[in-house]
Amino acid sequence: MPFRVPHIACLLVAGFLSLTLTAAGRADQITVFAAASLKTALDDIARQFSETTGHEVTLSYAGSSVLARQITLRAPADIFISANPGWMDHLETARLIAPGTRADIVSNRLVLIAHGPGGAALAPEELPARLGQEYLAMALTDAVPAGIYGKAALTHLGLWEKVAPQVAQADNVRAALAYVALGQAPYGIVYKSDAIAEPRVSIVATFPEDSHPSIRYPAAAITGRDSAAAHALLAFLRGDIARGVLVQQGFTLLEKASP
């Protein structure tokens, strides 16, 4: 009778190798918590990343402050992209950022928008007179990066005390954008990328870069969730495809990649 054990052993080994290779090459799911101002660009980037790698990306958008607090409470995020360094610093201090994964990926400009296309240009100093008794839409000025930058710019220009009583604060910058797009406020302060994404508003002024802290978007993996797929997405965000999308959507590339 022929001895069949080696043949069976070969089949078992082959099957084991097949399962191992399949497991190594399987698609993973990545959950990204990202600043609301990234939505239009990041939706496109995530789609292209998924098409390229097979990994599935779930995106959750809100104000950076809200997302950072959720991560502090152990919300299941794999990657966090903030609209300013402060909230990333907060998580890093709490040891919730995986070492060596943090990098600034992009910058932005702060703009004054008006309801409707083709709004007449104005100097920021003209805002109180143009505003009259109407509202100025902004993200939360003490918590959300766009609101913090906006308050800093208005303070630098000597305008904050004049307009503060008329500021309509929103949970995030996209909500402030919606106030203006819907005509609920004639003017608002948002990022350039937000204004480009919304055809119902127009940019009427750009705030001087030295009127507020530098706008930077750091991205990092969360401690204990820095998988190979998460690292792949972080690398993709710094690559040519993502950079092209970000520029097209009105973001500004940083001169040097930073970790």
Describe this structure as you would to a colleague.
The chain is of the alpha/beta class. The protein folds into two domains: 28-106 and 215-248, D-Maltodextrin-Binding Protein, domain 2 (3-Layer(aba) Sandwich); 110-211, 3-Layer(aba) Sandwich (D-Maltodextrin-Binding Protein, domain 2). 42% of the residues lie in helices and 20% in strands. It has eleven helices and ten strands. It has helices at residues 5-24, 39-53, 64-72, 85-93, 127-131, 145-156, 160-163, 173-181, 192-197, 228-237, 240-248, and strands spanning 29-35, 56-62, 79-81, 103-107, 110-115, 136-139, 167-170, 187-191, 201-206, 216-221. β1 (29-35), α2 and β2 (56-62) form a beta-alpha-beta unit. α3 (64-72) runs parallel beside α4. The longest helix has 20 residues, at 5-24. It is globular, with a radius of gyration of 23 Å. The termini are far apart.
